[in-house]
């Protein structure tokens, strides 16, 4: 092997924020949480060896924007979606703790019986002690997605990167499920994502990352060991940066 070959013997990041969609927890189901999928995510997270925070969506249970489009008040629908993320957070916490990973669920909407309230310094302290922190209930405000919550929390905890786990292995020129000619980007800039309206994260989240120089790595969560490969610096998925 050439001496110029990259080494993946140690993580390239110290603190990461993993963004998971609620749909990622469904597996092959139409809705809800697949315990097997959640258990596999927990096993993948357990072996990372870096400070790990997680933001999870709620689309497998309730999607506020879809309900709003059907006539429900948008703010009410969004609050219901935030509560769905707490359910997912508790499911993921249970799976992580069964895998012997100490975990804290931190909620932007106060509900002390099931989760800690979000206090930035306390969340950072949990990470420093090696605990996985699951941020639930989005930003606590309607009209903001969990993508934006992920970008915001990543800034607040000074994460090195956002890891966006999806169903595909990166960012493509078009939806690879619908367009056989779609090609994958290895790297792409924030501005290109915005200008080409690529569905990486919503525009607010992309803009927040761009303004603060926070890279995003988009990868296939369903590929075994993919989270670890990203953390170790292997060329996995697509990197969004300046």
Task: Give a structural overview.
The chain has about 240 residues and is α/β, with parallel strands linked by helices. The protein has one domain: Carbamate kinase, CATH 3.40.1160. It is built from 8 helices and 11 strands. β1 (about 15-20), α1 (about 35-45) and β2 form a beta-alpha-beta unit. α5 runs parallel beside α7. The protein is globular. It starts with 14 loop residues before the first strand and ends with a strand.
Tell me briefly what this model is.
This protein starts with 14 loop residues before the first strand and ends with a strand. The N terminus is likely disordered.
**Average of pLDDT:** 92
Any idea what the radius of gyration is? 17 Å
Could you tell me the strand content as a percent range? 15-25%
Total helical elements? 8
The description of the largest β-sheet is:
9 strands, mixed
Based on helices, strands and strand pairing, what is the structural class?
A: alpha/beta
Series of secondary-structure elements, N-terminal to C-terminal: EHEHHEEHEHEEEEHHEHE
User: In total, how many beta strands?
Assistant: 11
Task: Please identify, by name, the CATH architecture.
Answer: 3-Layer(aba) Sandwich
Task: Give the helices and strands, then pairings.
Layout: E1 15-20, H1 35-46, E2 51-56, H2 64-69, H3 74-98, E3 103-107, E4 116-117, H4 120-128, E5 132-136, H5 146-156, E6 161-166, E7 171-172, E8 184-185, E9 187-189, H6 190-195, H7 203-212, E10 216-220, H8 226-231, E11 238-241
Parallel strand pairs: 1-2, 1-6, 2-5, 3-4, 3-5, 6-10, 9-11
Antiparallel strand pairs: 7-8, 10-11
Helix pairs in contact: 1-3, 5-7
């Amino acid at each position: 092997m050439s001496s110029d070959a990259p080494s993946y013997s140690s993580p390239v990041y110290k603190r990461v924020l993993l963004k998971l969609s609620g749909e990622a927890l469904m597996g092959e189901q139409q809705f809800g949480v697949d315990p097997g999928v959640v258990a596999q995510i927990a096993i993948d997270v357990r072996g990372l060896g870096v400070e790990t925070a997680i933001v999870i969506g709620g689309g497998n249970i309730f999607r506020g924007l879809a309900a709003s489009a059907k006539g429900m008040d948008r703010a009410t629908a969004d609050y219901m979606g935030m509560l769905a993320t707490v359910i997912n957070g508790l499911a993921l916490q249970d799976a992580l703790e069964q895998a012997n990973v100490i975990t804290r669920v931190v909620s932007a909407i106060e509900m002390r019986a099931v989760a800690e309230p979000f206090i930035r310094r306390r969340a950072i302290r949990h990470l420093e002690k090696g605990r996985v922190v699951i941020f639930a209930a989005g930003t606590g405000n309607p009209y903001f997605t969990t993508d934006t919550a992920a970008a915001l929390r990543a800034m607040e905890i000074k994460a090195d990167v956002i890891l966006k786990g999806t169903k595909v292995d990166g960012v493509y020129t078009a939806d690879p499920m619908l367009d056989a000619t779609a090609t994958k980007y290895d790297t792409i800039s924030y501005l290109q994502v915005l200008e080409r309206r690529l569905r990486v994260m919503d525009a607010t989240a992309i803009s927040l990352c761009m303004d603060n120089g926070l890279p995003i790595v988009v990868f296939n969560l369903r590929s075994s060991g993919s989270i670890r490969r990203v953390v170790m610096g292997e060329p996995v998925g697509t990197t969004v940066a300046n």
